Amino acid sequence: MLIRRERPDDHDEVAAVTGAAFALPAGSGPPVEVALIGALRAEGSLLAAMTLVAVDPSDAGAQVIGQVTASRGTIAGRPAVGLGPVAVRPDRQHGGVGSALLHAVLGAADALGEPAVVLLGDQRWYARFGFRPASAVGVVSPDPAWGDHFQVRTLSAWTDALAGPFRYAPAFDGLE
C-alpha cells in the first residue's frame, strides 16, 4: 500500500470509495460526505498536503482503496485542521488502511506546524491515534450535542493559549 497526496485524477475514485464507505439504504441518494468533499474542493478549503489517498499497487491500475480529507478550520480564529471524511473501500476495511491514513495525515500535520487536528467520530477508534474529547483541552465544539465525539489531537505546535471555539470550513455549514 502507498499513501500519497490526492491528485485531480483521483477525484472520481475518491467519490466512489467515500460513497461506498458511507453508503445509505437503497433509494436514499448519495451520502453527504461525497458532496462535502466536492464542496471543500470548490471553496478552496482542502489542505492539499494533508488530503491523502491509499492505493494498492497490486490492484489493477493502482486504484484508490482509502482516503482522508483535511480542510482548514480554526480554533478561536487561528488555523487548525478539520479532519474528515475518512473512508476505506468496504472490501479493504479492517486491514490497516484507515490506520495508515491516520498516521500519515497526523505526521504531515505535525511536520507542517499545525497545532491540532479536530474531528467528529468514534471515540474508541480515534483514541488509538491520540485523539481525546476536545473539551479536555478547551476546544469548544460547534454543536454541544456532539459531546465527547468531538475530538482533538494536539500536535507539537499546540499551546494551551490556542484553546477556544472550533469552526469548520464553510462547506460544513451546508451539511444536513
TrEMBL record:
Residues 1-153 form the N-acetyltransferase domain. It comes from the Bacteria. InterPro entries: Acyl_CoA_acyltransferase, GNAT_dom. The lineage of its organism: Bacteria, Bacillati, Actinomycetota, Actinomycetes, Nakamurellales. Pfam families: Acetyltransf_7. This is N-acetyltransferase. GO terms for molecular function: acyltransferase activity, transferring groups other than amino-acyl groups.
